[in-house]
């Protein structure tokens, strides 16, 4: 019988083997007890002090039941997330059909991690567990070209509308989630990709933080920018993506240098700063809308005001045209303004105001300009108000940005500030597609030209109201954020023909 002098293990001794097995079992039991004690509900109950008028029997029975109850849902969700799974995967797992085990095929393993998890392209069966996306809703229609004459019609839709399955729609099909950023502990208020960039992403939150990320093959957080004391209301990248200018409810505008992660300039105001944009041609100009019914043009280098223009109400959103000659802005009463801007001097002059026919005045949450649309045959403007009105305008550049309503869509009223965005422009499509978040935690795609059945796709993955939406430059990634700080980057499906990404 062989002996090991430096240890206590004797090879071939049955008593020793039995002791070793019992020690292993005890260790496993201890590990299980540790896992069970990590239940947050039980932990909180044990730490909760007993009140003077509390019933000790009730407290004891409650602790006993909590100790014996099934594992808390938050612990199960945490286990799924540590394995690279998603919220919707957990939801589909607990709601799975009875014969699911026999029909389920193991999907590809994902890379674990806490934030910026990379989820590779799943197999067809594993797509069901990762994202519930109605990716096919209608055929590519081959109708008559869109007419150029200006018409206006309205339609209504609900956030719970289910898309009609009439064929494959390759343009808005998604293979699932590319990555998830969930380190933020507050509501994400604004979300944007960098200019002419396919992988640089930033988002601001209600706790005053700005997070800069990369969504490349190894998604990660690049910089955390801390300085604002209240909600980040808006931000914008400079044209070379070296700087970020942000506005906040703390009445300040801050300019950040991304590479160093530092604030290089603070501009103090007298009211909340609500929206901000760099001039697309002259990045030395910074336009800021505030709660004092103004748009101020600042000199980026010195921080001094060059010019300002006064409006009828708080300026809640804005956007430039591609040449920087016009600023389109919306206020808290739902009015939309076209403002001329001199690219050399920064002087502003109001030219047109569009007044909605709606009796209810609601703040404009989205203002997005696009230089061309098949429907309008020229530049267009998308606006969204907090009460759920989506409007699509053609822009007459020769008449200093005069707006003509082409079509509109009425959604359910919102409580939160929810944003919308144009969808990628497709050469074969005759409609006008937009994507928007919703308070039922879904991402919806709409065709604004349809009086009925306007919803063409729907993405499910968030658990809370989706507040912000953004496409990257290559338009192969769509980022969405929700009220509890989770940012999901969705990956579009690659297609053939004219719809290549």
The total count of helices amounts to: 7
CATH superfamily of the domain at 192-415: YVTN repeat-like/Quinoprotein amine dehydrogenase
Give a count of the beta strands, DSSP E runs of length 2 or more.
Answer: 31
N-end to C-end Cα span? 70 Å
Helix and strand composition category: mainly beta
Please estimate the helix content: 10-25%
Which residue ranges are poorly predicted, with pLDDT under 50 across at least 5 consecutive positions? Answer: 1-12, 104-115, 119-153, 496-501
Main CATH class of the domain at 192-415: Mainly Beta
Q: Which CATH architecture of the domain at 192-415? A: 7 Propeller
- Anisotropy-based shape: globular
CATH topology of the domain at 192-415: Methylamine Dehydrogenase, Chain H
Mean pLDDT: 76
Q: Strand sequence of the main sheet, in spatial order?
A: 1-4-31-30-29
Q: How large is the radius of gyration?
A: 27 Å
Q: How many strands, which pairing sense, and closed or not: the largest β-sheet?
A: 5 strands, antiparallel
Oligomer: single chain
**How much strand?**
35-45%
InterPro entries: WD40/YVTN_repeat-like_dom_sf, WD40_repeat_CS, WD40_repeat_dom_sf, WD40_rpt, WD_repeat-ST_regulator
Keywords: Repeat, WD repeat
WD repeats: 225-266, 459-491
Biased composition (Polar residues): 141-158
